[in-house]
Design a protein that fits this description.
Blueprint: H1 2-12, H2 19-26, H3 40-63, H4 70-87, H5 89-100, H6 106-116, H7 118-128, H8 137-153, E1 159-160, E2 163-164, H9 165-180
Antiparallel strand pairs: 1-2
């Protein structure tokens, strides 16, 4: 049900999802989804939770490799973010919307918090090593992600003016790191 819902989300957006239509597509009774999800919002919340879990796994894989410096870790995390955003744009949008809903489930908020704590942790480690200016690591992360989100939003099919985003990401992160360096 979640796989079918995610497919529907990516092709037609959240408004296109119908428990009845998903039931028909899966060949089950129209009441079957209600055994797992009370309503469409519960299904969307489950999709968002699942999305955050996958997003977090990508961040962990990118940031936890031993022997990497700050630049390498941040670049790999940036690539993981951009890759996820390009492959799952509707899911990412749903995830961001869901975490800001006043009635968002606590499980969703917890997994979102875990996911978005990864990059500030990398900044905090770099600050402790003297590689990054003293500042709020969360705010430094916002600078990175807003730039990456902008890059994704102006790209077409993972490219900007024919240049693959993967190549541009390295350049964007390199320029940011120059700005984040302490000054004497």
């Amino acid at each position: 049900l979640l796989k079918a819902a995610e497919k529907a989300l990516e092709t037609g957006g959240a408004q296109s999802i119908s428990l009845r239509e998903l039931s028909r597509e899966l060949g089950v009774s129209h009441t079957s989804p209600r055994r797992h999800f009370a309503d469409k919002q519960a299904l969307l919340d489950a999709l968002a939770i699942r999305g955050f879990e996958r997003f977090d796994e990508a961040f962990v894989r990118a940031s936890q490799q031993k022997g990497q410096g700050f630049k390498d870790r941040l670049t790999k995390m940036a690539r993981a973010y951009v890759s996820f955003a390009i492959k799952h744009p509707a899911l990412l949008s749903l995830m961001f919307e869901a975490k800001h809903r006043p009635d968002a489930p606590s499980e969703l908020l917890a997994v979102a918090e875990t996911t978005f704590s990864r990059v500030p942790a990398v900044f905090a480690e770099a600050q402790a090593a003297g590689e990054v200016v003293p500042s709020d690591p969360g705010r430094l992360s916002i600078v990175v992600f807003s730039s990456l989100l902008g890059l994704v939003s102006i790209s077409t099919d993972g490219k900007f003016k024919g240049i693959p985003l993967d190549r541009l990401i390295g350049e964007v992160i390199e320029r940011m790191i120059l700005g984040f360096r302490p000054r004497s």
